[in-house]
Recover the amino acids of this structure.
């Protein structure tokens, strides 16, 4: 069966510090990968998606970037965090030929 | 343009009551897919169901049931005999055909509170 893990689960970072959230998927090959953000009490916002290694599409221009160095690894980064980057970040995957998205456990980021 | 509306921001019921969560969608695609996800307080989004536009049969899974009506562009979700563990935020979502970029259009979510 397929599993998805992301870490760290919680993170408190000062403004201006860098960020790295990692996500890996097991049990499948060539997945589509996604990073979503959910601000407190709000809906889901798609940040990035990837259909293959090195292929990243950005949905919202902002302070964040994503990379996919391996087929089943997806990384969300920032060089300098802003207060507005606080939120709940969710990594997700779907099969290349499917459109059902499966989510990881999420990472709570608080920028102080 | 595609859009998903979950007009109910928050619903509160007493345990064992039945509750229906509404979802209304807009799309110009003839082939599309509808989804429901559950987000418990822990945060992880849990996939519940996917329905394609050609299948209007209602779906029942235990205490959960889904009513898909193309005539009213609705995909409503009913929980029968609700339990405290059903307390969560529920999201409805829409995607286009399989050959699109698989992105989901999300509703704003409905927070469901089940009181003991």
């Amino acid at each position: 069966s397929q599993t998805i893990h992301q870490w760290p689960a919680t993170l408190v970072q000062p403004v201006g510090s860098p960020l790295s959230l990692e996500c890996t998927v097991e049990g499948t090959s060539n997945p589509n990968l996604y990073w979503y953000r959910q601000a407190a009490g709000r809906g889901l916002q798609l940040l990035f998606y990837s259909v293959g290694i090195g292929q990243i599409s950005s949905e919202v221009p902002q302070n964040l970037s994503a990379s996919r160095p391996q087929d089943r690894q997806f990384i969300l980064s920032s060089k300098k965090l802003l207060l507005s980057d606080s939120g709940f970040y969710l990594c997700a995957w779907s099969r290349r030929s499917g459109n059902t998205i499966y989510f990881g456990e999420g990472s709570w980021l608080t920028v102080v | 343009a595609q859009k998903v509306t979950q007009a109910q921001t928050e619903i509160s019921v007493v345990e064992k009551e039945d509750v229906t969560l509404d979802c209304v969608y807009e799309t110009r695609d003839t082939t599309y897919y509808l989804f429901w996800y559950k987000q418990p307080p822990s945060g992880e989004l849990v996939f519940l169901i996917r329905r394609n536009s050609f299948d209007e049969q209602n779906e029942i899974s235990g205490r959960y049931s889904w009513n898909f009506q193309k005539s009213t562009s609705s995909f409503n979700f009913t929980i029968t005999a609700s339990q405290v563990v059903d307390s969560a935020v529920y999201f409805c979502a829409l995607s286009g055909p399989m050959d699109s970029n698989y992105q989901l259009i999300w509703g704003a979510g409905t927070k469901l509170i089940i009181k003991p």
DSSP finds no helices and eleven strands in chain A. Chain A has one domain: 3-111. The mean pLDDT of chain A is 92.
